[in-house]
Each structure stands twice: as C-alpha cells, then as structure tokens.
Amino acid sequence: MLRYLILCATLGQSLLCLHAQDSLPVGPTGGGHLVPTGQLIRPAGKTVAYPGRPVDLALAPDGSFLVAKDHRGLVFVDPAPWEIQRELPFPGGGGASLHGLAISPDNKTVYATNSGNKVQIARQDDAGKWAYDPGITLPAAKVGGPPYPTGITLFADGARALVCLSRSNSVGVLDLTAGKLISEIPVGVAPYAVVITPDQKTAYVSNWGGRMAKAGDLTALSAGTPTVIDERGIAKTGTVGKLDLGKNEMVAEYAVGLHPAGLALSADGGTLYVANANSDTVSMIPTAAPEKIQTVIVRPDPNLPFGSLTNALCLSPDGKTLFAANGGNNAVAVLDLTKDQEPKITGFIPTGWFPGGVITNGRELFIANVKGEGSRTAQPNRTGFNSHQHRGSLTQVTIPTAEELAAYTKQVLADSRVPQVLAQAEKAQADVPPVPLPARAGEPSHFEHVVYIIKENRTYDQVFGKLKQGNGMPELCIYGPDVTPNHHALAEEFVLLDNFYCNGVLSADGHSWATEGIVTDHLEKAFGGFNRSYTFGDDPLTYSSAGFLWDNALLHGKTFRNYGELVYTEAQPGGFKQIWEDFDSGANTLKITNKCGIENLVKYTAPDYPGWNMNIPDVLRAERFLTEFRAAEKSGEWHNLVIMHLPQDHASGLTPGMPTPQAHVADNDLALGRIVEAISNSKFWPKTCIFVIEDDPQDGWDHVDGHRSICLVISPYTKRKAVVSNFYNQSSVVHTIERILGLPHLNQLDGLAPLMRECFTEQADVTPFTARPAQIKLNQLTLQKNQLPAKLRELAELSERQDLTLPDRIDDDAMNRILWHAVKGEDIPYPAAWAGAHGRGLAGLKLQLSPTAGEEDDD
C-alpha cells in the first residue's frame, strides 16, 4: 500500500485516471481519449488517426516514406509532415494478416501478406503512383485451407524472400523475380516473424505456437495443428527456430516465452531479440551461444501481473537501444543495451491504444497503434459510427531525452492505471467482518455463490433507452419493456447501470474479455480475417497465459459449474419449430451433443445444457439449469461460481422459419426472469450475487458509445431502485467476482478495472424477484419471404446469407439494419447517425468528436 501511495503522490495532475476517470463516459476527455478498458490514451509526439487497424510498419531504405499494414491493406505515410499520402486496400476485398511487411532495396516495391493465400505486391511506377500487381499465390496448408502468411523478409539482393506460413507451420522461400514459392522449410507451430543474418546463410523464425507436439504431450488443435497445452488448455510453449538456408531446414530450436512474435537482430547478427507477447518478456539470444538466453520482464512495474503484451520490437541503428511495444500498457518500453548485463528498462513512451508495430530511423520512433482512438470512423456514404468502424492511428515521436522520458514514464503509469493494479496486491487483514464487496482480496464477503450470465450483442439504448431515470435515447430502443419486461424490472428494482461498456466488439474478443478480463495479441491483430481461428473456446493459441476466471476459482479451492459458455451444440431434432414443440409439449426428448475445445472446461460443463445453437430457445436452457439447481437445493450444496450462456438475444434476423427478433429477445428475457426468480426464492439467495452482461454490443446502436452495453447486478445486497453512473466494463465484472470469491485478479486489465462498489449496500433486502410473463409469443416465426413486404423480403434474403453456426459470423451492419426494420417496419429510417461506437450523445456529456473523425449527417 505504501508503494501505491508514493507512486500516486508523484503523478500529480496527470493522475486523472485515479478517481475522476472512474465516473467519466468512454470518449474524448482531458486532452485524450478514455477507451473501454478504462485507460486514458494520450500519445506522445504527432499522431494521425484514420479508418483502420494498423498492425505493422516498414520504413523505406532511403527514409522517404513509411508503409503501414492495416486490416484492409496498405497505408503510405510521408514522415516529414506526418501525413497519410494514400491508402491502398488489397485487391478483391481480402484482409491483411496480423504481421508481415517489407520494402525492396530500391524503395519501389512493397510486399505484404494477406489473411489468405497471397503475398500482395505493390509497385511504384515512374510517375510515383502505387498499384498492385497479381502478387504471389501460395499453396494451401496441409491441414486444409489457406496457409495464412505472416512475417516476410527479403534477402539482401531483393530477388528472394522468406515468408512465414502460419497454418502450414513452415517458412516459404520465394523467388520474387519469377513470382512463385520455390520451397518450404518445416518449422514449429504458427511461425510469426523471420529475420536473415547479415551473411545470408541463416535465418531465425519465431514459432508463435511453440514446438511441435511429441508423443505423450497434452495437446489441443489450433488451426488443425496439435499444439502443446497445459492442464488449463492454454498453449504452453514458445520457440525460436534456427534455419540453415543452404540445407533448407531448421537445425535448432530454442525455448523462449509464450507467443514469441516480433524479432530484432543486431547489425552484426550476434544477438537476436524476441518479443514474447503472452509472457510480457523480451528474450535476448546470443546467436553464437544460444544456451545463454536472457529474459527481461518488460512491464512498467516488476510487481505487476501479466498484461503488458509485449509484441513488437525494433533496434536503434547504433544497436544501443531496444524499443518494445507493450500493447496492454499503450506504451513503448525503452531498453538500454549498452551494459554487459541484461538490458535495463529506462522508461516508457505513451502511444495510442494497443501499439502493435514499431520502427525507428535513429531520430524518430514510428508506431502503429492497432486500436488507436477506438471505433470512431464514419464510413463513406453513411452517417454515424459503429463499433466495427475502427479508427487506428500512427504516431511519430522524437526519441526522448532522459528528462523527457522520465516525464513520459509518469504519464504512462497514470494513464495505464498502474497504481490501481498495484493497489490490488494489498494483503488481506485478519478479523475483518464480511461485507458484500471486500476491501482487499481474501477478506470475507457475504456472498458464497456468484452466478455470471453472458448474453449476446446488445447496447444500452437498444434495451434500456426508454428508461427515463438513465442516460438513454428512446428513439434507439427496439427491445423496450414490451419485449424485455424482466430486464426492465430487474434494472428498476435493483440498479440501473448507464455507464457500463463491453471492452470488445465481437464474439471472438468479447467472450475472452468476459471470461479472462483481457485478450491476447492474436485477437487484437487478426481483424483482417480470422483465418487461423475465430475463437469461441476452440483455439489454445488465443487464450491469455493468466488463464480464465474458472481457472482462478478452481486454483483457490472454489467449486465451479459451466452452463453453455464456449460450447457449441448439435441437436436432434434440429429445427427450431420441432425443438419448440417438443419443449412446449413437455415431451423433453431433445438430445444434444456439446463440443468445447477447452478440456479443463469440459470437465465442469453441464452435459445436458445447450451451448451455442440458435434453434434452441433460452427457456429450455433455463429449465435445464433449474433442474440441476433444484437438486442442489435438496442437497444443500451449490457451486461457488456458476457461468451461464444465454445466447438467444443474438436473434436470427428475418430468417424464414426462425423466431422473429422480438420473439428471440423475449425468450431470452423470460429465461433470465425465471432463473432469477428461482434463485431469489431459494435457500441460497441470501448469499448469492448474480451478474448479467452481453458478450459484445455490436448488433445495436447507442447515443453515447457503441461499446456501451447492459449489465445487471442482482443480489440481496444490491442497492434497490438506484441509478449508478460510474464507469464499469466487462473486466470490472471479472474483477468484482474475483474480489467476492476471495480470488486475486488474473492480470493487469482486470486489476485496473474499477470494482463495482457503488452497486452494493451494507443492508440486505432478501425480497425475491417475481418473473414477468412474456408479452410476445416466443414461437412467433418470421413469415416466409413471399408473405413479406418488398423491403423486408430483401432483408429476409439477406438474413439467410448470414452465418449463424458460430457466434457473430455475420455482416454487422446488415444485421443491425435487419433488426431495426424487423421491429420498426419498412418506413422508419435506420438511425445511422446514432449507430455504433461514438454517436451524437457525446455532446450531451460535454464531449466532442475528434475533428478528423468524419462528418455526420441525418439518415
């Protein structure tokens, strides 16, 4: 605690994030941007923001321009005025892979890897115009599907290149003159980056997924490859491979940290530096004596837990300084390499949100900020903003003096909320009476049971926009009290949270934020196309090394039960109508087969409870949960932590034969009401707290921010009939559950998230909740296309083209428009001016959009 107080005292006015920040809404504020993680973004130097998620940077050999690779293609930047010269999306609409960019020695050609099977090639003509040629097509991976090329580096003559083939687990050798792949070198799992030594005889590759599995290893599949995992189901190795380019083979492999990503090789080839994104470390490998590997933790404070996400590196031209991009701290670490001992961290430079690429010319540092300022970009010919309208940024900062770096470091500590994380380590005190939310981890709580319910895709305004006591916009509410009477009753009888945010923007990152309190480098950088995986509990390379909430609970002796979270379900019979009739008649003959990619979660998952399957109503899920719950009541023993997935508020658009969106959401609402009613009438109620959130907010609109969503906190110690406007997010829920159950926080991102103290009171009110009946027929089906008006018929056809076999594998704008017109009818205009991540509600909060965020107009 003393360390925390001293650190706070040194930060002065820049410590906006300590207390005041906890009551602000997400958006522009205090000369920067408050983002949904709760961190403040105030990058040093000059920043240009633009529509994209930049993941990589390359500097022309003559220094005349830079190229950034974002999730769509290439962005050319003039370093002198620090302006974007041109954007060059990849041809054919394909996206970019999470890494891989190189410029030819003559400055005339750019090579970039896409998210499928090509190395895209842009060439500059004599007039200075850039255009793509056909590029190099790569063969499919042996496990099937595209090879997903990532890192690329050129030989000195510019005639050949090496490219990492992530899903093929190989490094390809390219003949750039002939435009073809001439050979492949087998390496480890998911190669990420590759560098060539000055003598051009050796190369080094970072094997992001580690070594290949051996007999007896515990494994799980990642993009079709058996990957070594620990007992939690998380990939547990990371390696660097040494390639003999004469023999075309990997001749040695060195163990480093987890998710070895960016590489930097000294000019003489004597030292290789490796950024280990899932370990927060940099490995330093003497290439002549690789057994003497050194590892440096690159966190702003050595006492911090995991969460800095060190993912990219560059060396100064003189080799005396290493710069490391810490995505989790929104900062670049500066490491002094002049001493014989291990590198020393001298400070941190503030960046945009999640720096993912860094390069230097020796005078300036250039940084690609993957998420930049959040989701703030207006798309062409459309007003408003959406959570997927990414606004990344590129930063140029002069390499600071020692004095400037000291000031920058103080700012990083404040803006990334380091004091808040360190404060969580305060030891529990003895003989402390129980309270709802203890002051320190390990102190007693009134609660012994936590129920954590995760739903799908709604914003605050979409559900609660008509509640006058909260900061809502009635015009944007499409699932009001007539559709969601139980949500409304719970919000009004307990607490209404009108400043709560989802950290992520879709299911792949949303479920990770909801269950881990953080996401990894893959989930931040793979938005060009999730061709390795669109993870829903089925890729061990996408999980945080700190583990899941249930790992934390089990490690500390708590009991746990999972109902459907990160589970896919097949059902017989398979259609909604048949399943509904079977359930409604009481026959209950539905047979399900569940699939979950996390073996440790399978052991604690209810086998009869359905996971993701839009044909299965949530009221059936509720009944299957309550069957086990009633048995627990009889035995008197119930789990400490219960996690439950109720997905039907996702809806199926206007797919004929499926429930209408209103029926889907009403089903979800009634299921929630019945679950809360049963728990609140049980013997467990006095010691139970229920949290209800959405996994992400992407299928809706909000006048404050597209990340703003709904959260319910329901317990005997929850305030009654209260409105709480404190800033909270998904990581706050994870952090609060941990504190209630006496668990330490998992990582930096849940540790910095504000605990939800304002939701609770010391006086218990054990009045049970009474579920409200549905006001809409839950089996109300969308009409066949020939029975719909013309516009709705078009939307029905669009609905049929959406992939509902996985969470959120849909066209988000299409689904938003479908759901709007399904409720409002053909004639009410889609409210695009309010849509998404940062809409017009900012003005009412005395905030303003970035001047470059784009113009708004009415739709």
Question: What integer is the average pLDDT?
Answer: 90
Structural class: alpha+beta
Pick out the low-confidence regions.
Answer: 1-19, 379-384, 833-859
- For the secondary structure, the number of strands is 45
Number of helices: 16
Oligomeric status: single chain
Share of residues in strands: 25-35%
Largest sheet: 5 strands, antiparallel
Portion in helices:
10-25%
Distance between the termini: 53 Å
Shape: globular
Radius of gyration, CA atoms, in whole angstroms:
26 Å
Write the layout of secondary structure elements.
Layout: H1 2-11, E1 27-29, E2 32-34, E3 40-41, E4 46-51, E5 56-59, E6 66-69, E7 73-78, E8 83-89, E9 96-103, E10 109-114, E11 118-124, E12 130-132, E13 136-137, E14 149-154, E15 160-165, E16 170-175, E17 180-186, E18 191-196, E19 202-207, E20 219-222, E21 225-228, E22 239-244, E23 249-255, E24 260-265, E25 271-276, E26 281-286, E27 294-297, E28 310-315, E29 321-326, E30 331-336, E31 344-350, E32 353-360, E33 364-374, E34 391-398, H2 402-415, H3 418-423, E35 449-455, H4 460-464, H5 485-493, E36 495-497, E37 500-501, H6 507-516, H7 521-525, H8 549-555, E38 560-563, E39 568-572, H9 576-584, E40 591-595, H10 599-602, H11 618-635, E41 641-645, H12 661-680, E42 688-694, E43 711-714, E44 722-724, E45 728-729, H13 730-740, H14 748-752, H15 790-800, H16 812-824
Parallel strand pairs: 35-41, 35-42, 36-44, 37-45, 38-41
Antiparallel strand pairs: 1-2, 2-3, 4-34, 5-6, 6-7, 7-8, 9-10, 10-11, 11-12, 11-13, 14-15, 15-16, 16-17, 18-19, 19-22, 20-21, 22-23, 24-25, 25-26, 26-27, 28-29, 29-30, 30-31, 32-33, 33-34, 39-40, 42-43
Helix pairs in contact: 5-12, 6-13, 11-12, 15-16
